[in-house]
Design brief:
It is built from 8 helices and no strands. By secondary structure, the protein is mainly α. This is Carboxymuconolactone decarboxylase family protein.
Length: about 160
């Protein structure tokens, strides 16, 4: 499959993506654990069906030391015993924040309170921005049919 747009060749896309990438860098520099960020990015991308982002975040998580078992169980995290309560809270927030059309009311108070038990305000901010960021990037990649499979960990750092 060929991409509909080459983000790096198009001047408008390149300019816009420069800002997107700086937002991603700010998230990487936040106090939210890198492993949690990769799990959340992967789960949002799975829900949205973004092959390019699933490719990227699976490989980034593995390069950061994430185990194959945990990566394979992200899609079924509720039934898996390999995630901490904090990670479960982050994944639940990510799901409700991604499925806003399905959840009608967005992120519920109970889900927010559960996340707030495990994360301070800076980390909650990073989680919210990460979920929003991933949803935007997923849509960019899906609309333009960005292919998956060739990403190498660290490629955009």
């Amino acid at each position: 499959m060929d991409a509909r747009l080459d983000y790096f060749a198009d001047p408008t896309a390149a300019k816009a993506l420069k800002y997107f990438m700086s937002a991603g860098k700010a998230l990487k520099d936040s106090s939210l654990r890198a492993a949690t960020q990769e799990l959340v990015a992967l789960r949002v991308s799975q829900i949205n069906g973004c092959a390019a982002c699933i490719d990227m975040h699976t490989k980034e998580a593995a390069a950061a030391g994430e185990t194959p078992v945990r990566l394979n169980l992200v899609a079924v995290w509720r039934e898996a015993t390999v995630f901490t309560e904090a990670e479960r809270a982050a994944l639940e927030l990510a799901e409700e924040g991604t499925r806003v059309a399905d959840a009608a009311g967005g992120v519920g108070d109970e889900v927010w309170a559960h996340a707030a038990k495990h994360y301070d305000e800076d980390q909650l901010t990073a989680l919210v921005v990460l979920v929003s960021f991933m949803n935007a990037v997923n849509r960019l990649n899906i609309i333009t049919r960005q292919p998956a499979g060739n990403y190498e960990a660290g490629q955009f750092h």
